[in-house]
Queue: 2 jobs
Job 1
Amino acid sequence: MKDQRITEEAKRRLDSLFEAFSIVAEETQVFLCNMEYDYSRWSKELVETFGLPSEYMYDAGLIWERHIHPDDRKAYREGLEDIFSGKQLGHDMQYRAKRLNGEYDICTCRGIVIVDESGKPFYFGGAIRNHSQRSHIDTLTGLRSQYGFFDDLKSYIHNKVPIRIGMAGVGKLAEINEVYGYHIGNMILQHFGRYLMEHVTNRGGSYRLDGSRFAIISTLLDEKQLAQSYEDMREHFRKGIKLDNLNIILELNAGMLSLNDFNVDDQTVYSCLNMAYEESKLNKHGDLVTFRNELTTESRKRLEMLHKIRASIAKDFSGFYLVYQPVVDAATEKLIGAEALLRWRNEEYGTVPPDIFIPFLEKDPLFPKLGEWIMETALRDAQKVMEYVPGFVINVNLSYAQMEKADFTDIVWNTVWRTGFPQEQLCLEVTERCRLLDMELLKNVIVTLRAGGIRIALDDFGTGFSSVGLVKNLPFDTIKIDRSFVQNIEQDEREKSLLNNFTDMASTYGAKVCVEGIETSGMCDIIRDYGVHSFQGYYYSKPLPIDEFMSRVENGPECFARAKQ
Ligand code: C2E
Ligand code: CA
Ligand code: CA
């Protein structure tokens, strides 16, 4: 610490230089130090985010050092010493800095030394870019970003302002990118953004959420007007837009909801809106779908329940548990594995099956945490079963939103290593819904996991349009045939020939076949002849909590066999 206090004149000069720095800084935060007095001014946002004592500080380098991660401190201190001793005139480093809430953000700090006429270091100034700081403006379209969307939504909820929210997006953008290139894809998004800005912004805020999805929030338009705006927009894009001598016809999807009940949080609202949007995309050919929560008692209760389920993820997953449904060898009926299935239970609602809440939670930022918990719990339970049935394979369901995360494979490996689980005995089930992901990304994930020994199954085969395409393009170990194809196999000849086609195709691609939904001995007898590898269904057992499952398993691998009973 220098013993001299800064003079008024020096402070005034520091301020004016600081202002100049701030103007050019854009998305970075600036600092400026008068080295003679070791007196600095730091931008307000840094002071607030990191809990620094004030915008004006003596000895700021030392104060900042206390916020830097202990492992990064030495490098930081050395860098700073070089600056103050005159050895270096520039500084460019990355470190982790602790925020007010105790979390670390990765920051890049770039600084330069400005010397006076005699060449003596005079100012040290620069910018700190906080990599975790989220921009409220989308750089491609100029609209507010999803962070802006959430900020605005939170404030409407907080102030109890009734609003209508619409989510609209361009269908098949991934394919457009593939056919015409990203350049055209980006131009389409820009065009879409501009359209929104021109047609709705005077009556509401417009936002780019992510990828091809946009949103508007309006306090003025009612549902009917919003629906009309969407139809106009659809018409406009259906006629085609002209880009680079091309006329590109675009199909849109959209969901909408009205918010009049302020007893919900922003994420719940977003999930409901998403559900409406996905419904429009998957089942309604782009027609506008309205999420109904007009406080009919039933839908309100449902929303409250979903809200509670969501909150349990943050509360140590309280209420969540797994049940296990055995998978048996089709020929011998010996236990070879089990599928882990998620449940949620609480006093008020009883046991809630996953179909009710998984589609709702899938896109929630908390979902990957739950996915990790499911995997870890399933692996630990499976280890107990393996003491009785050494080759036991545990199947864990994945949701497509989990796989989309950049660190998904790392999470899987970390869980496998943490539990010491033999990876060849883990099988991950992916569903048809995964086709919504980018095919290259999906392929990468699957190939990486398989290269490490993990097995991959395609779940619910036959229920979507692209089952066969998926099997052709992606290497699966097992194909699980959906129960809807075998429900009537005892009476229906067509189901038999379909099953035959499926098993033929699976064997062409080197995959085994598991048939789900076996409910009777008659079904087993017929299906066994079709080269099927394994069975799963109520005939053998309903999904069981781990204690019940274990008490069966203790009787050996034939514990679920029916033929000998
Ligand atoms: P799924 O993966 O196709 O799971 C099989 C579903 O069929 C289970 O329903 C199971 O109880 C039911 N089932 C099994 N045998 C029979 C039978 O013989 N007859 C009939 N009628 N049904 C049978 P459940 O447990 O309600 O799960 C529903 C869906 O929820 C699952 O379908 C899966 O897509 C999803 N899910 C369940 N657990 C998880 C999970 O941990 N993560 C993810 N991402 N999804 C899960
Ligand atoms: Ca499954
Ligand atoms: Ca299934």
Job 2
Amino acid sequence: MFVPLLLIMTGINPPKPCNPVPSRPQIAWHRAEYTAFCHFGPNTFTGEEWGHGTEDPKMFNPVDFDALQWAKTFKEAGMTGIIITAKHHDGFCLWPSKQSKHTVRESSWQRGEGDVLRELSKACKEFKLKFGVYVSPWDKNHPDYGTPKYNEVFAETLKEVLTNYGPIHEVWFDGANGEGPSGKKQVYDWPLFHSVVRKYQPNAVMFSDAGPGVRWVGNEDGYAGETCWAMIQGKRYVPGTPLYKELTEGSENGEDWIPAECDVSIRPGWFWKSSQDKEIKSVEKLMDIWYGSVGRNGHLLLNVPPNNKGLISEVDAQRLMEFRKAREQAMPKDLARGKVASSDSSRGVGFEASRVCDGKANTYFAAPDGYKQAEVTLSFERAQKINAVSLAEYIPLGQRVKRFEIDAFNGAWKTVARGTTIGNKRILRFPPVALTRLRVRILDSRACPTISAFEAYASR
Ligand code: FUL
């Protein structure tokens, strides 16, 4: 039996998991926080959002295609990975799939010898970015779509993507399910599709409205709920669920750890169009989205569509860098790091209050078993002007906190912010306040609270 070293040394038990808890790949996904989404394909050349599947593949010709430029741009923007539309609803495959006659092989790009997935997976490796794929089950081109045979075709299609391009961190399944060339809709064999992913990429998280790895946040605006549980009751939902609004908050009593991914485009559309070059979201809007997604226990999947030359346009790249700078200015330096911390209850050695400000994600303060409330106070030698805090629970043991308040002390205590859930990360902003002590008061929790980070910021 595995006995943690800390327990052998101190005799003090860590809290028991408060189920459900995330898998290792889900924990890595939470901590990765921010991923680029790339919609790219025939629509990039036609200006459509939903292609028809009848487009001439010859017109796919991104003459200056450069996956390294994409990866470099996204790396510099502070993103941790890229998810590419390997196949969108029009059925066009960005790799020379054997399951289709509507692919890069039939295009005029690189005389039919190009492979976007090959180039992009290599570029991701070079820039140490995670690589993910959007593979649409809806296919407006495939002649078998609408028949049981298509499920087999799609399983083989997935297998190609999952076995030829190295590690895949996320597989993105869209919920859209429309008619194919025969006018029929497909009844998707989800158990089959999931089994293919589990077999060939067991560490990939699977996205759909309903998971099973990560869920849609229920809107395409990039915002999680102010209350946002990583859990849902998985059995209530299917891809394409009409109950999608519930996904914005998740459920305190959900039996399944299926956290929220917030997808949103930097432009009005998902695909690049020159007409939208002037409609790129402002830095202020992107900052608001950041606080509303990553700052509310979500993962931000920001779509930055490559243009018809096969490059990330200068205007988008520029905005991404401004956005990065704005984040750094809003939260420049954690002023709580290494400060004196105390708590109103004590579990004992290994779980002290000081763990909240040691800068380590895997150490945490924990209250004793049975406690549903706890206070952790940070003390500063000199008065500090603070206008934001960032909190984190130790999510490997489950998401617990239901309600909390933040107080500042400068002669007297004053509540400056309040919230409900925390999860992987919760950022709260408030008007600048000078303080010598900063306190989080957890008012209610599903089980004894665990806090791994309590950070304090003064924006520049
Ligand atoms: C939707 C799709 O129908 C859109 O075209 C886009 O890919 C978006 C991210 O998901 O459901």
